[in-house]
Design goal:
The complex is a heterodimer of chains A (593) and B (249). With 593 residues, chain A is of the alpha+beta class. In chain A, 36% of the residues lie in helices and 17% in strands. In chain A, helix 3 (80-99) packs across helix 10 (404-424). The longest helix of chain A is centred in the C-terminal third of the chain and has 25 residues, at 510-534. The termini of chain A are far apart. In chain B, a hairpin with a 6-residue loop joins strand 1 and strand 2. Chain B has two domains: 5-109, Ubiquitin-like (UB roll) (Roll), CATH 3.10.20; 113-248, Alpha-helical ferredoxin (Fumarate Reductase Iron-sulfur Protein, Chain B, domain 2, Orthogonal Bundle). In chain B, helix 5 crosses helix 8. The longest helix of chain B is centred in the C-terminal third of the chain and has 22 residues, at 227-248. The chains are: A alpha+beta (593), B alpha+beta (249).
Chain lengths: 593, 249
């Protein structure tokens, strides 16, 4: 073992950068791989804020209450030990971000301001306008740039992770990655690797996620033997702007600042929404959930909107949408606290949400599931760690708003030092640790794709996958549809090998890179779909009308999917959940008490 | 072809050492199309207007909501973000080409790493003691946050550099984005510990003095950063620093 451990971090969003900072600070050296320049990572899209029980509003908030809200919000599926640690770490993380220069909104006394978010009754969310993720990512990016200029970090931006290099003892010894310009595949040695490769919205076609959120890296390591946990738990965000290319997020902070969701009581009400009188508006969230109102957790709000649109047959001018209304809030407050998101609505829809209610509908947003990790953030493959949305452990069956930025940074901060600790006791590698063989395997995969002379276009297969998954594996799930979806995915997999790339060149070939990602997306789609099929209950974001209740006896368990071969269905195992601190209780946001 | 179509012309270049050619496309119109969805439509059916098989267009994009800064390109002669460029608001044929002041990679992809190097040169960061728990940061009045926040919304799209007449090999000008970031950190209660070093880095050739106040940057910036204000503030601070350095050395 060399004196300074060499760690590879894959992914330069909040979790990856947080890990890099801890490793560099501890004296390790880091190679940081990212598909895009790290400053352009998907964390920039987070809007509303970051949770921590700082209790600066005299409400008596505590980290214990944050812990309870998170566990209850996640319908008791999350292991409680790591969640408790995350909530306890929250206040110090906010202080650190503040010291890094994040322009958090302030109170008149110069303290951090906090706002409300879903699933809690406390003002617990620190925010920088409505671009908090962008501001946090930039702060970490700046610290990493500082370490880069000191020679402690080497960035490989524009490189895509393909696989781990695993030696004959089953221990990770590095990665293979592809240069997205020269398309060259190379092996990079490391004592440990951290995958901070984010979510998988692309599997659902249109989502709130960025283009790079394909889940490809997570799927690749799953296919090398890592367990994938709770894949069936997909968060559909209640308030998105439907679009041609993506579903743009309209932050929960809009409701945190007083935004109200309503729908005209008449289906074909053609009136301008501002002229519809109160008596003709249905504020269904406030009516159904008097205690939390518009700030119920996302899964609850999403199902309520679905119910209003598909069971009560309401909408806006016949379209499946509802209003998110900010027009009762004064313009100065809106601009000071929400400008970033109002600007997005204005630019992409063309209406001013300060004047007219926004039209929104739920959209795929986040995966609670991800790579299985232990409490040290290590997967079951020794030397492979994971952090951020790429792993599963902080959000259970439903994530509370503004907990994702916290879990990313906390997970990064835990994984970095643990990777160093692990690396320090790692026996020396024998030979190349399997690097040459792994590069050869990847080159063979590339050759197969580039030489395929079929008829299929990878982007079209992707579009079909997205439509299928969105229809059957999001808000409402039926077993017969899930079974059919799995059959359809297998047909798409067959068509995948009948691909014909329009571009077979060896320079910045984006179709080729996408085709590689698509193969991995298809495998992960089966994990999500079959995980949902197996879980005959309703819990958090996973809802089956045929099994409407939570079933703790059978399913208070973590789903673990194991890869069983390119054409085989994943194998499922179930693991008990750590519930040692808070005894599971019914999750009832409609209760008045 | 569908009744209503979108006419698009794109400047293609297979590699830096290959010649550039314009290709024409005719696509089915749909409501709400933006330029990134046009490029995705071409990827799904890579055929030119005259029926010739072609390749998917290489371009950078990620968030598609004008926050990540990836998809800057020149659309109908104007440097802007492709995601927020709505087809219905553009004159057709829509002409799309890469940014012109950065090395070409392929098609609409260019290499903008120069900005990230410039940010190193001005030390656009707070030099933290460490990431361990050192307690709360200093109190800051809301007025300071309101001054810093707009500068912190820079998405590194490099459009301010593309449109600046002074941003070229001859001047070596760092460009407006870097100067604005230097100001952002000079105003931070802790970041200002490096204020003098940042000002010295912006003095001399390629520094703040190269600005010719054409004001193109502030007009083109998709996030409406107060760029000319930042430049003139920094120009003043650089001058004061130079005077101080002159009299103390």
């Amino acid at each position: 073992m060399a004196a300074a451990p060499k760690i590879i971090v894959v992914g330069g969003g909040l979790a990856g950068l947080a890990a890099v900072i801890k490793i560099a600070e501890a004296g390790g050296t880091v190679d940081l791989f990212s598909v895009v320049p790290v400053k352009r990572s998907h964390s920039v899209c987070a809007q509303g804020g970051i949770n921590a029980a700082k209790n600066l509003k005299g409400e008596g908030d505590t980290t214990a209450k944050h812990f309870d809200d998170t566990i209850y919000g996640g319908d008791f599926l999350a292991n409680q030990t790591p969640v408790k640690a995350m909530c306890e770490a929250g206040p110090a993380i906010i202080d650190l971000l503040d010291r890094m220069g994040v322009p958090f909104n302030r109170t008149p006394e110069g303290l951090l301001d906090f706002r409300r978010f879903g699933g809690t009754l406390y003002h617990r969310t620190a925010f920088a306008g409505a671009t908090t993720g962008q501001q946090l990512l930039y702060a970490l990016d700046e610290q990493v740039r500082r370490y880069e200029s000191e020679g402690k970090v080497k960035k490989y931006e524009g490189w895509e992770f393909l696989s781990a290099v695993i030696d004959n003892q089953g221990v990770c010894r590095g990665i293979t990655a592809m240069d997205l310009r020269s398309m060259e595949v190379r092996a990079f040695a490391a004592d440990a690797i951290i995958l901070a490769t984010g979510g998988n919205g692309a599997i659902f076609g249109k989502s709130t996620n960025s283009v790079v959120c394909t889940g490809s890296a997570n799927s690749a390591i799953y296919q090398q033997g890592a367990y994938y946990a709770n894949g069936e738990f997909i968060q559909v965000h209640p308030t998105c702007i439907p679009g041609e290319d993506k579903l743009r997020l309209m932050s929960e902070s809009a409701r945190g600042e007083g935004g109200r969701v309503w729908v005209p009581r008449e289906l074909n009400d053609k009136r301008d929404p501002t002229t519809i009188p109160e008596s003709d508006r249905w504020y269904f969230l406030e009516e159904w959930y008097p205690k939390y109102g518009n700030l119920v957790p996302r899964d609850v709000a999403t199902r309520a909107i679905h119910k209003v649109v598909y069971e009560h047959h309401l909408g806006i001018d016949g379209q499946p949408m509802v209003y998110l209304d900010l027009t009762h809030i004064d313009r100065a407050t809106l601009d000071r606290k929400l400008e970033g998101i109002l600007e997005i609505y204005e630019k992409f829809v063309g209406d001013d949400p300060r004047v007219t209610p926004m039209k929104i509908f739920p959209g795929m947003h986040y995966t609670m599931g991800g790579l299985w990790v232990d409490f040290n953030q290590m997967t079951n493959i020794p030397g492979v760690f994971a952090a951020g949305e790429a792993e599963y452990q902080y959000h259970g069956a439903n994530r509370l708003g503004a907990n994702s930025l916290l879990s990313c940074i906390h997970g990064g901060f835990i994984s970095g030092p643990n990777a160093i600790r692990y690396a320090k006791s790692l026996p020396a590698v024998e030979g190349d640790g399997g690097a040459a063989a792994e590069v050869a395997r990847q080159n063979e995969l590339n050759r197969r794709l580039l030489s395929a002379t079929g008829t299929e276009n990878p982007f079209r297969i992707w579009r079909e996958l997205g439509e299928l998954m969105t229809k059957n594996v999001t808000v409402i799930r039926y077993n017969n549809n899930l079974m059919d979806t799995d059959q359809q995915i297998q047909k798409l997999q067959e068509r995948y090998w009948n691909i014909n790339l329009s571009d077979k060149s060896q320079w910045a070939n984006t179709s080729f890179a996408f085709a590689r990602q698509l193969g991995n997306m298809l495998q992960l789609a089966r994990v999500i779909t079959l995980g949902a099929l197996m879980r005959d209950e309703s819990r958090g974001a996973h809802y089956k009308p045929d099994f409407p209740d939570r079933n703790d006896e059978k399913f208070l368990k973590t789903t673990k999917a194991k890869f069983a071969g390119e054409q085989a269905a994943p194998q499922f195992e179930y693991e008990d959940v750590d519930t040692q601190f808070i005894t599971p209780r019914p999750r009832r946001y409609d209760a008045a008490a | 072809m569908a009744e209503r179509t979108v006419q698009v012309e794109i400047k293609r270049q297979a590699a830096p050492d290959k010649p550039a050619v314009w290709e024409k496309y005719e696509l089915a119109w749909r409501p709400g199309l933006n330029i990134t969805s046009v490029l995705m439509d071409i990827a799904m059916n890579p055929v030119t207007k005259d029926g010739k098989q072609t390749t998917a267009v290489a371009y950078d994009s990620n968030c598609l909501e004008e926050v990540c800064g990836s998809c800057s390109m020149v659309i109908n002669g104007k440097a802007r973000m492709a995601c927020s460029a709505l087809v219905d608001k553009l004159e057709q044929p829509i002409k799309i080409q890469p940014l012109t002041k950065f090395p070409i990679v392929r098609d609409l992809q260019v290499d903008r790493s120069v900005l990230f190097e410039n940010l190193k040169a001005v030390q656009a960061w707070v030099p933290l003691d460490g990431t361990y728990d050192l307690g709360a940061g200093p109190r800051q009045l809301p007025q300071l946050q309101e001054e810093r926040y707009p500068l912190s919304r820079c998405i590194s799209c490099c459009i301010c550099m593309e449109v600046c007449p002074q941003f070229n090999d001859e001047t070596g000008f760092v460009g407006a984005a870097t100067i604005a970031q230097a100001k952002l950190f000079n105003e931070d209660p802790l970041g200002k510990v490096l204020k003098e070093e940042r000002l010295r880095a912006l003095a001399g050739d390629g520094g703040v003095q190269e600005c010719g106040f054409a004001q193109n940057c502030v007009q083109a910036c998709p996030k409406q950063l107060p760029l000319t204000q930042a430049i003139s503030d920094m120009e003043r601070d650089v001058m004061v620093q130079q005077l101080k350095d002159f009299f103390t050395n």
